[in-house]
Amino acid sequence: MKDEYFISIYLDTRRAKASGLYPVKLRVFTSAPRVQKLYPTNFELTVKDFESAWNTKKPRTEYKKLRNQLIAVEKKAFDVAEKLVPFTFAQFERQLFRNSGDGIKLTYHYNALIDELNQRQQIGTANTYDLSKKSLSEFAEQSLKLRFDNLTFFDITPKWLKDYEQYMTQTKKRSLTTVSMYLRVLRAIFNKAIEDKEIDKDFYPFGKRKYQVPATKNVKKALTSEQLNLLFQAEVKTKEQEVARDFWFFSFNCNGMNIKDIALLRYKDIQDGKIDFLRAKTKLTTKGNQKQITTYLNPFSKNIIQKYGHSKNEPEQLVFDILTENLSAWQEQTKIKNFTRMINQNLKKAL
Questions:
Q1: CA–CA separation, 154 vs 160, rounded Å?
Q2: Which one-letter DSSP state was computed for residue 287?
Q3: Alpha helix (H) residue ranges in 54-175
Q4: 257-293 b/e (C-beta count within 10 Å ≥ 16 → b)
Q5: pTM of this prediction exceeds 0.85
Q6: Which of 47, 68, 277, 283 has the highest Cβ tally under 10 A?
Q7: Counting Cβ atoms within 10 Å, is residue 335 exposed (0-12), middle (13-18) or buried (19+)?
């Protein structure tokens, strides 16, 4: 609704440039909440020229071109704002300061969401989006001779998606699980573009009687008690094999606590013979009603904490030396992946 925002062309006379001219800015104001933002334009004018070109009903001939250019700036802002329901500055800025045609290009939306996920420190999800983008790009450029940078939402049809699936499973010999993972990302990007009114829902290529993303089931393989005992009693030949086995069984004894949560465990999470923690996987994506997980420590898991735990067991101290403090999200993700890989590789060697 237009009364959510007010847009106008504004001469910012608070400080002149070195040239003695003042910057012309785009002023956007919302009343609820009361927020005003000024956005730069390419124009710098004197007060007299601004008055003559903008603050007059009938500008003289020499100012008509300038006036039309300022009208175009204002019109573009109005066109962007009118599509936003509700109006938000974040969406407005994203759409205002992009190149013409970016709104329908897949590469623009992939890059925007990858950047957003990285800023929210959802590094794993960002990596999945990046892998999806690279896979679709390879298919478009190698099989269709079409640059991914030029690919639009309108190019993605049910047939295009079926051809991609065939290319992945037959030419690339990739599993349907991989196809499903990459195309669920693309589907999410379509849904967001429709929600943001970038494209009409009529162009949505997924769903019944269109293209359905392969539904794959994650088959969970449980070890028998004999296999668990064999693993536990296996003779370890190296320190790495011992660490791998110890942390695998620590996870097992803590109700399947994943390696990332183990790596992020702090002494304040351990109280009265139990661990209370929030899963890192859902901490950033579940805003409300986050469920705290409780796992009770048995003699084995207590022994692992004592064996590998940090000597300085203060509340904020990380329990294990898998991570160090003040790592970036990317560094943290890399260390956790490397530690998980070390466990998997050395368990195979120990068996």
A1: 11
A2: -
A3: 61-82, 89-96, 106-119, 123-138, 158-166
A4: bebbbbbbbebebbeeeebebebeeeeeeeeeeeeee
A5: no
A6: 277
A7: middle
